[in-house]
Amino acid sequence: MNTNSSPASRRFGRQRLKGLIGKEFLQIRRDPSSLAIAFLMPVFLLLLFGYGVSLDARHIPVGLIVEKPTPEAASFTAAFEHSAYFEPMPFADMRAAEQALQLRTINAIIRLRGNFSRTLFSPRSAPIQVIVDGVDANTARLISGYIQGVWNQWLIHQAEARGRALDRPVVLEYRIWFNSAVRSRNFLVPGLIAVIMTLIGALLTAMVVAREWERGTMEALIATPVSVLEVLLGKLIPYYILGMGGMLLSIAMAVFLFKVPLVGSFWVLLVAGTLFLLVALGMGLVISIVAKNQFVAGQAAIIVTFLPAFILSGFIFDIDSMPPAIQAFTYLVAARYFVAILQTVFLAGNVWGVILPNLAVLLFMAVLFFALAARRAPRRLE
Q: Which fold has domain 60-161?
């Protein structure tokens, strides 16, 4: 059944748009779930992931076996006791240490052989034995690197104390850019903001049109002299305001609570957040228009937006390490581009060679999703 309003009455009108925006804000006040999504969800997820997820390995329990106590052996074990990365646990023999490793009480075994002091600087000897639990491959690599670092630093100190040069073919002098503290939280929290904004934007609008169909108000809305553009803008603007409030809250928590350095411009971050939020809101609108059911729309928003953003955006998992087919698929994930902008602006600054191409893709995606929403928006009763 077609509506009786004429095309002239469907022209864009500010008063009608203001009325639709007021209607949405009234609905938000009556149903505060949107406020919870916009403000409580970012706080909960940032606290959960910010404190609960860490790629750093600290206070690692390791077993120490000293077959023959010597001053050199005592000095070496003291290096582990004063390290922030290890919690050494002495064992009397190898059997007890292996049993502790099997029970996951310790993560590694460091065994100093009986000839440790005698063969310390011999290039053809292995005065220590290291056994690492390799169940968690990433942690195993970190532990191996940390032990190697402690060993190299201790050897240098011992060589200097004895007035001799340490025979090393290559001397590595490294400098860390952009995250000199090497805190995984500085890398994770900006990426987490992108995941949170994906979920917020999609959920805020995913159930908007679906709710209209469920409550039977869509028929009344279509019967009024409002255009499709007015309907979309009337539903977009209130949730855009809520979403930007959630983003500003997330940035404030990242900077002041988690102490993530913001090297670049806040205004660049705001522009990028605006474009990305428009993409997320547009995806939610398309889902809500197609689903016509709040439960289905909510589930679809989580599956279609949140999971790809979490797994395929580079937030935690390195995209370059993925299979080529999956790497190609990540170009369809909007969060990939926002994660790149966030991590660059937070840690490296305004690197325009990274920021501008990603902003261009986000702008294209925002236009695409709103074009789809306008095309699929209901214009008549069926």
A: abc type-2 transporter like fold (3.40.1710)
